[in-house]
Amino acid sequence: MISTELSPMQRLFLWSLAVSPGGGLYLKEAKVKPTPAGNRKLLEKQGLTRESGRPTYVELTDEGWLWVQEHLNEPIDTRSPRIKDVFAGLTQLLASYFASQDQTLSIGQMIHQAQDYQRRVAEETAEIVRQASAAEPSLQDPSGLPEAIQQACLLLTDGQFKQRVRLAELRPLLDSYARNDVDDALLAMQRRGELSMMRLENPLEIGTADRDAALTTISGQETHILYLQGASPCQPQLQ
After folding, report:
1. What is the structure's pLDDT at 134?
2. How confident is the model at residue 163, as a pLDDT?
3. Cis (ω within 30 of 0) for the bond into 36?
4. How many domains does the chain have?
5. Do 130 and 222 belong together in one domain?
6. Taking the chain, what is the end-to-end CA distance rounded to the nearest angstrom?
7. Are residues 187 and 223 in the same domain?
8. Cβ atoms of 166 and 210 closer than 8 Å
9. Which whole number is the average pLDDT over 205-219?
10. Which residues have a Cβ under 8 Å from the Cβ of 177 and sit 6 or more positions away?
11. CATH code of the domain covering residue 74
12. How much is the pLDDT for 136?
């Protein structure tokens, strides 16, 4: 089985091969090179790339092409300026593809269709999660959730209000309650001004745990963090 535990630069290197003619290039011409060299050789050991000749020529294997196809939706968390070269190569390939096709579908129509598909998948996934959460019984009376949420937030912030709390860190502290009860309590507390929820604006900060723990508001905004606004009459005492 192919390992997906690759570093951002290893991922970027695979994409640089994918947008190169024939899915390969001479290493001396590569603008993206995973360092140290062992990181590049690891891709070959995993069967994703093949190296040959002198000077060294690197190309994607069938497994490498499969990896690229299966990871189209995953971000490459790197600030390397070389990512623009990969993007430019990809757009050039798209331009060549559309120029070679005898079709009436424009790139704008293709993008709109893709966005519609993404929205439908997101809505279907949210509905599945909602139904599963609704069927999950609470182990504790949800009436105590506001106090439990406040206490958990203060535990994560060392007793400080107005400090950022990730939902990914908060939810495990509230796992004795059903997720839909926790979500309802968080939304109610936000309406009362007891806390503020918002999304992480930097995509590089959003990990898998953040996406799994996200709460989607009534307006459709996906939130990942919250700030406890201030002391309330029922402020819990931390032990």
Report:
1. 66
2. 92
3. yes
4. 2
5. yes
6. 47
7. yes
8. yes
9. 88
10. 138, 139, 140, 142, 145, 148
11. 1.10.10.10
12. 57
